[in-house]
Amino acid sequence: MTAGAILIVSHAGDQHTQAVLDRLGKAGAEPILFDTARFPGEIRLGIAHHNGSGSSLSAVIDGVERDLSAVRSAWWRRPLPYGLDEAMTDPDDRNFAFGECQAAINGLWSCLDATWMNDPIRDEAAARKTWQLKLAAAMGLRAPRTLITNDPDRAREFIAAEGDRGVIYKAFSATDRAWRETRLLRPEEQDQLDAVRHAPLIFQEHIRADIDLRITVVGPKIFAAEIHSGATNYRVDFRMTMYDADMRPHVLPDAVIADLRALMARLGLVYGAIDMRLTPEGEYVFLEVNPAGQWLFIEERTGQPITEAVAEQLMAAAA
φ, ψ for residue 66 (rounded to 5)? Predict the structure, then answer.
């Protein structure tokens, strides 16, 4: 049987996408890269239904027509916003065009006879931190005491209840242009708590630990790495000093692995980058899972073959 096509919904500027494309190319695969930022301006889409005789899905990318009906494996990897024509300046026109693009593209994804990593709908839902925490606790994982609020009074009550243990605060999301690291709340910052009325914020108990864990799940494979953030000058968020921290592979207890697999299954994720902390008492504490989290920084420092695992997962689904 001829292997199906592999579709990657991402963009050429993503380093992780390029690493997987290179790996797939070396294995003889010819994946289709669908960059949503090039739609509708540079990509021509065709979705045809033939009155009971099936459907055909195609896209013209870089002048080549690609048969999307043959796609059996698809990777949803941080796609960019649609590239609407800059000459369209009226806000109503742009909103209309965006909605039409969204409807057509979502319809395309739904029509693909493919195994997704991850399914776009499940990926979006799984990224909701509040739901992650609820499910993690239900799966048996220890999660931090958490308050998400835009009520300054409730925030003050939560902080007071935590006492000397301390509280960290963080945003729901961050981008390269608007980076928002996790921070330990300082006493002088409590005077600024009225500002949370403008947007909800996440407050959590401070999990004191010298070791952070990044656990990358790729289908049946799990790659756990320990990050010795406690030896750096910023112990609250390993992302701030991750290139200064010592990193090495970590062996997870069977019980933690079982709980994480249950969580991934409940979230409907094939791929996920999970952050945990390992306390001095040996307790594993779940923080969050990123359905499209980075892994190259772990692979480079530990030698764990995560890129190869991603490529193999995509090829196995296309077989």
Answer: -110, 135
